[in-house]
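Now for a chain:

_____
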Amino acid sequence: MNFVPGIDRGKSAMRSSLISSALVAILVGFGGSIAIVLAAAQAVGASPAQTASWVSALCLAVAVSTASMAFVYRMPMVTAWSTSGAALIAATSIGGVPTYNMESAVGAFLFAGGLVLLSATLKPLAALIARIPGPIASAMLAGILIGFSVAVFDAATTDPLLVLPLLAVFLIVRMFSATWAVIAVLAAGIGWAILLGKTTSVGAGLAWSELVLVLPRFEMSALLGLGLPLFLVSMASQNLPGFAVLRAAGYQPPTRPALGVTGLVSVLTAPLGAHTTTMAAITASLCTGPDTHPDPDRRWIAGLFYGAFYLVLAGVGVSVVAGFAALPPGVIITVAGLALIGPLTGSLSAALGPEDTRFPAVLTLTATASGLSLFGIGSAFWGLVLGLIALGASRIAARWWN
């Protein structure tokens, strides 16, 4: 990688900014998306113990993968759970009724993690995934995400006194910082719910987590309707942008080994309830710039602190889940929906930008958002299939008439 000129590499190896950057990244990554993970757990009927195990296993996977890659490769290679994947899982619930149970969901998580591992070892598979047109993949992601943002306004209709002030907080804070807007909504939501008397008792305070083993069930409908889309959205919306963030900061990340590490920890933690672990994009950008350390060869140390903090979160996952369970549903819905407006905006822009793929992309988006289920397979799969068929048909027609 390129060195930054004018830096005395023998001085200031340790800076407080290495710690603060890791803390900010965790606040943004964990605080901004934990509500989506909890919605995903609810969508597959996870018990409170399984939900706590899910959160703890995710934190453990992020801690181990980040710290190990940062130490080995001397780069701030930050990982995260797949937020888009959690949104996909949460969207599989129809009218509050789970489409997949926890056992079949874990089977799909293992399948998705296995596909990431295969991508690390088999170049043709990675090349095949890369050939899926970006607008179609983005349209599938937009179809998954849009329901969450719509749900914010449904919640506002049901409980305007709770939700509308939080929406106002989001809009005001976002004028100054899009990164901190969701954190502000989360903090305001907790305080506002307490003031309104809408919280329930959380029981005894801090408690240590226990990991719960879930025996997987491999059902074709879950593998195709959940596992395959989970793999695709995790690769397209987080792994690939995560590598791009590192390259933009001047690093040359080892792509296939990184996929191998994230795929391996995903497979190992899936039986504990965790869905896919991926490279981080937004949170990684908080650890890869000069604000973390002026010497790019020292920024990898932030990854060690990041991993250590996530290890602490892994130990208290049950308390995190209990704390969120004490909040009214409107707060969780609002935080999750507003957190996904940014990714929704980006995916819509990418999906609808190119004119030649706009029609197939709209078909993909609408089919995915519709909740279509055929043969027990969910809408994300069928939206992708329909978009690819429409794109292929339009290209055949273009060649025929030309």
User: Anything to note?
Assistant: Residues 220-248 form the longest helix (29 residues). Confidence is low (pLDDT under 50) at residues 1-11. Strands lie at 79-81, 277-279.
